[in-house]
Every structure is written in C-alpha cells, then in structure tokens.
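Re: the 478-residue chain
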Amino acid sequence: MILGRKHLNENLLGAEYAVRGPIVIRAQELERGGRKIIYCNIGNPQALGQSPLTYLRQTLSLIEHPELMNQQAVVSLYPGDVISRAKSILQRHPHGSGAYTQSTGIPFIREAVAEFIRNRDGIPTDSDQVILTDGASKGAQAVLLALLRKKSDGFMIPIPQYPLYSASIAMYNGNQIGYYLDESNHWQLNEAALIESLEKAKLRGIHPVGIVVINPGNPTGAVLSYDNIKMVVEFARHHDLSIIADEVYQENVYDPDSRFYSFAKIMHDLDITDVPLFSLHSASKGFLGECGHRGGYLELRNISPEVLTEFVKLQSISLCANVAGQLTTYLMVSPPEANEESYPLYNKEKNDILSALKNKAETLKNGIDQIDGLSLDLPQGAMYAFVKIDLPAEKGVNTEKMTEAERLKYEGQRDSSYCMSLLEQTGICVVPGSGFGQLPGTFHFRTTFLPPQNEIEELVLRLKTFHENYVKKESVLS
C-alpha cells in the first residue's frame, strides 16, 4: 500500500499554518536558484542576523562541556561569574544536559521561574505550578488538549491570531471562536466584540471553554493596557472561561507610553481566584531570540490539585522538555546581577537588540506611511507589523452575496496572490493576512522587522515600487 492523504487523520489535514506555507516554500525554491530573499515571515531573530547573548552562550558551553573549566585558556577568557554559575548549575544538576530530568523540569529552574514572576509582579508564586516546556507552543498545546473535552467545545482566539492556535484547535477536534481585535484602537480587545463572538458561537451549538490573549500581540504588535486586561479577566470570570495568556514578547515593549502587565498580576490585584489562568513565556523571543533551543514555561493558577496532576501526567508522556531548553530558560529568568563581571556586556547587548528593534519598527512605519494604499499602526511591542492593504474592488465580484466560506476563500486568494507577487518580483517574503484572520472586506500582510536595518530600508523602497505597480495593474483588470 502507498500511503496517501486519504489515509491521514482528518484533523491534521484540516490544520493550516500559514507562517511556513506555500509562499515560504516558493521563497526557498527561489533562494536555491540564486535569488536574494528577505525573510520576514517568521520571528526567528538569529536566522536574520541577531547575535546570541554572550553570557548565555558562554554558560551553556561550560555546562555542555565541563572539561573546558579545567583549561586555563578558557578560564582566562570567560568572566568569573559565568564560570561560577556553570559550576553552581552542575552542582545542583550533576547529570548535565545529557540525561532526562523530572517530567516538569529541573526543580531549581522551576523555582527560578517562580522567583522571576515574584520579582516581576510582586505576587505569590508556587514553583510546583510551573512546568518547563519545549518552547511556549508546547505549553499552549497542552492546555488546548486538556480543555477541549468534547466536539462541541471551543476556544476563543483573537483575529488576527497566531496560527499555532487555529491549527492546534483543529488537530484536537475543537472549535475556533474568533473575536476581532479593534484595529482602530491600537488592536486592543473590544468587549462588545467578545460578547458578539461568544453569542454567535453558542447559537452554533459551540460550548466556549477558554480564551486566548496574546500580549504583546502577534501579529499586531499591540501592548494591552491595564484596563483592557482587567476587562478580559472580568469577561472570562462572568462567562466561566479559562485564560491562556501568551506573554512571550513581554520584554519587547518599545512605546514609552506602554507597559507590559501580566494577567497574573492583574488577577492578583483584582483578588480573582476563580478564573483558571495558563501563562506562557519563551526564550525564543524577547531579546534572547534563542528559538533553536526551544525553551519555555507554563505557569498554572487557580486550578485544583487533581488538574495539576493531569498536566504533570501529560508532560510525562513526553518524558521532559529538552534539557538545553530548560537551561536556556533558567538563564533567561536569572540574568547577571549588576555587580557581576558579565553584567555590563549583557546589559549592552540586551539594550542594543531592543533599541535596534524599536528603530526598525519606526523605519517600517515611516516607510509605509509614504506608500499610498498601505497603512500601519506603529507596533508598540513584539516583533511584527500587520500592514493593511487597500486593493481595488474586482469587477463583477460581490462578496456580500458569498457564503462565509466562499468569502474567506476569495479574500485568501487575493491577499495570497499579492504576497506571492511581492515575493516573485522583490524577493520579500511576508505572510498573507488571511493566514492570521482579518475583518471581512480587509486585506493585510504580516511582516517581521527583524532583518538588519539596511534590509528594512531596502524593503520599504521595494515595497513602494511594487505596490504602486500592482495596484495599477489590478485597476486596469477591474
């Protein structure tokens, strides 16, 4: 028998993941043919030129190969606190990086995560309710798998959203309940939109069990205000929903008038203890950009001991998160202190990365402002921009007469065609807005602002020429 698509799980076939979809596959083909591609499709900082932090890589190298600490040449090159930290880690975890750990992760690292949250928010935190994961995505998928009990269950997710959520919900045979973010209000959540989304889902026979919130936002770059998060928490409480707080970009805040607030802190401030909260963080984002090490954590609040036991069991099925990722997570939450030798370089590298991201976001915004037919709300945080595209109406096409499925297909074809043409003509690889979801009748694309400054400047110049020619051609055809 030759295995074909008809033999595969229908839930897998129904899952879509635009971030690495057909446009990226075509970009790789063009690159193999000698084309220079500007990859803006995925938040993969080090693949786009960001250097790893010296402190982190030095410490990991000593843990991976402890014999280096016996070589005088290495000892003279590495800061003393890095060597001391590596020795301390190996004393507390003598098996090193080549052995399985406890299912929930190395205990002292889980305690370090708890301490990180205590220091960040000033709230009580229990390390027993911290699970170390292979990046934040595995934590998110664990929650979705655990809470989607029946075919009628659904999860509220933002539109636009990160397609990890829609794809995972499809694979777990759940229902996606999209709620529109408010583009006119810096992509904040809108209570009326939440209520409308919930009521429509119930009319379709869907039972909502939770809500996903991404803060700072992917793909929007929005940083949610204190009051906006408070509204979401109270909404979840009123409707008996669990919350997945995807907070992997919490260090990426560029707007001086914005500040990251965790859901855990605001729930503590409100003295709310009856809304289950699942908070995610990752070493892939922020200023570390250690995507390849796949480190992250899931913190659980307001759940019963029995539920925690089931999450531990779920994690144990995979034995444990990869150990290099656990160690990377530890170094993320336990950076050098101000009096340590490695601190000045660490602080400089961190600030340089965040400053460069802020400058590139502004360059992208300023460039797009010069292009008639494109618009962008300046990203307040994260590492993405969701650019709005004005395309001329096609002659003879009336989307109001289409079914929702027909409209989604049509709009997906239009923005996908735009992005594929952009790739073919300019070498710029972005993701169609339909891959994330968008308000009916609108078109977008998501781009990162991770490439080097000179490539961002080149990108906006190419984009201007391309867009003007594309719209002129579309107008003629219409």
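The two ends are 49 Å apart (CA to CA).
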